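User: Show me a protein chain along with its predicted structure.
Assistant: Here is one chain, sequence first, then structure tokens.
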Amino acid sequence: MTGFRDLRSNHDFTVLWIGQTISELGTRVSMFVFPLVTYAITGSALLAGVAGGLDLLGVALALLPGGLLADRVHRGRLMRAAAGAGVLLYASLVVAGVFFELTVPHLFAVALLTGVCAGLFVPAEMSAVRAVVPTEQLPTALSQQQARQHVASLVGGPLGGALYAVARWVPFLFDAVTFAIAWVLLGRIRTDLSPAPQAGPKRRARADIAEGWRFIWARPFFRTLTVWGMCSNLVVNAIFTAATVRLIQGGFAPWSIGLVETAAGVCGVLGALVAPRIIERTATGRLTVLVAWSFVPLLVPMILWNNPAVVMISLSAGVFLNPAGNAGISSYKMSITPPEIIGRVQATGQFLGWSTLPLAPVVGGVLLAWLGGPEAMAFLTVLCALVALIPTLSASVRSVPKPAEWSVSEATTTEPVLATA
């Protein structure tokens, strides 16, 4: 497997990665600022919370149509259309802000629609990565994407706060500029990103979307990972919520609580940097199981002590292996998915994986209210162990070898695409 240095020679991936790193930073800035602006206008914590969640709603609504489009239309043009729409949407907020006409309906509409643009963009981007990156370089490429996300998460909040201090509309100007840069860079991709030709007559959209679902649920490997992803996202994010709220209840200083998220972001970046080497040297199935269990022992100290230092060390250490696990198993999934349906398969998996995220804060909060701090963390630790059993008990997951051996295992893992009516 090649390293980061070798992958830089891939012009198209480098252009795509740089453009999306800049754009994602802008998006993180805006997502941080949306609740602040909404609260400043209305004084309502409820409306501020709604503003923070509309982006995710937009993504969820658009993922499946985005997967369909990624397999039907030119992926480069689709990504540029989404980036161009982002420029116009955020520019509208800048104009409204300059003339002191920012309104909550306008903010909500932009938050929702930019989420829709992201939902259309993500499947096309993943399909594009598969097209411009050789199979042996996929783990490194996806590791870089993991690093991009952690860096944007780490920097977005502080940068958003600094820009917001200048004027309410300045963060939106920054985001509009990042979308414009992404639009320009996407136009420099040389690889033909046209979808793979489909045999036979053109089918209905519903049948094409259903094909992605059938591909996943007909294969134990994909089905197991999908169920595990849904459950893991729910439990791990509930743990982060419960740990944060418990620290607030304990009366700790906000800056010390904020360090927990900062430390997790730093460990995520460090984990992404070493991920290619971990993926290269470890059987992918074994690495997936290890990641599934990594949080369980680290949660035990959080049952006994409610302290920012303990929470910071436990959660940050748990995050460290995530980039390697995510990049490794995602690369293998992409390598064994037929190119003509990769957009729909990726979109379906992400849609199902993200479907449980809105429930995580509710689960964490309810458990704290009903059981109390130590009992809630103990309950979540047990849940985390039960979720870890899902990939552990699956032979189709455990048997995935190292990347160097993927080409050998593909012959026994892949199956013909199911025909749909």
